[in-house]
Fold this sequence. Notes:
Elements: H1 2-29, H2 31-35, H3 67-73, E1 77-85, H4 97-103, E2 107-116, E3 122-126, H5 127-130, E4 135-139, E5 145-154, E6 159-164, E7 186-191, E8 199-210, E9 221-224, E10 236-238, E11 244-251, E12 264-268, H6 269-282, E13 288-289, E14 292-297, H7 299-305, E15 312-318, H8 323-327, E16 334-338, E17 341-342, H9 346-354, E18 361-368, E19 371-378, E20 380-381
Amino acid sequence: MGVIMRRLWLIFAQAVTISVAVLFVVGTLKPGWLHNGATAPDNAVTVLEAPSSAANGQPTTAAGSYAPAAQRALPSVVHIYTRQAAKVPNHPLIDDPVFRHFFGAPERNGLGSGVIASPQGYVLTANHVIEGADEIETVLNDGRKFGAHIVGRDPETDLAVVKLDTNAKLPAIAFAPADSLAVGDVVLAIGNPFGIGQTVTMGIASALGRQHLGINAFENYIQTDAAINRGNSGGALVDSAGRLVGINTAIYSTSSDGGSLGIGFAIPVSMARQVLEQIVANGEVVRGWIGVEMREITPESAASFGLPVKRGVLIYGVLNDSPAARSGVRPGDVLQSIDGQDVRLPRDLLERVAALAPGQTTVFGLLRNHKTINLKVTIGRRPAPSAP
Length: 388
């Protein structure tokens, strides 16, 4: 028994000796082998390797090309051509076949872009692209042509939905998650500028949440320096993974031809998706409304009106027989909260009320005569905007 134990101990000692010798050789000749996967020393920098897919505005290839993103999105962006009978004074020969043969019927032609938002053929575009159109034709990136009809329009966001008149298989775009875009992220604008054909321009998200531009009633724009020109309206703004982040709608320009100055605006995908879903479900967008005129309270205006608060929304007008009037809201009230959530800007009031369903009751926290009161307000339906 003693002989066996001595032999086992000898084998163990030899194994330890050989292991120590191997570690010594490796540590001397290939020290990196011993640190592979080990925690870096305190004086070493640690970097986070981005995933191979595009994220946070990074190129989709090592060469810095955005071709994969463009290739994913291009098939989903369509050209939109519209025809509208021109409204001209009635001419005695306007209905004469000979007159029409030589001079043609008066009409106006328009062009823009759109984005295939679903395999069923629903296309998101800008309302001003198809407004008043008597005929709509779309051309896909692969050359296929389809007629289309208007499903619904939302002038207050300048969005519209049309449906392609086909049962063919269609390449719908992928929607980016809401709030996935950050200032500085690379974006691509895709559309049909000046009717020259499918075009991709690159820029960055210059700003988010742009408001008070006087373009539409509901504004929450992505600002970008990607070139957007006449004909790009309704086209796609995509991220570096080719996912839809916005619908191009307007540019800032000082020239009559609407040339790009590097300041373009797109409706964020979150708003576009809400409008799309409502129009497909109801044929229109239904919003809440209470019927008040309001202004922002600033420290200066608070001092001028003798208000005890420095922030909030001053109700300075209440429409007769409006939901606000029927609920007891008065001119001079200061709105501080809706259902317990703070309201600081008129935009907060507009958007929160618009998101409520007509007939729904909500609680307004108001300051009246230096006293806080709570009023139950029954939401009405926002009237359709009047035609210009």
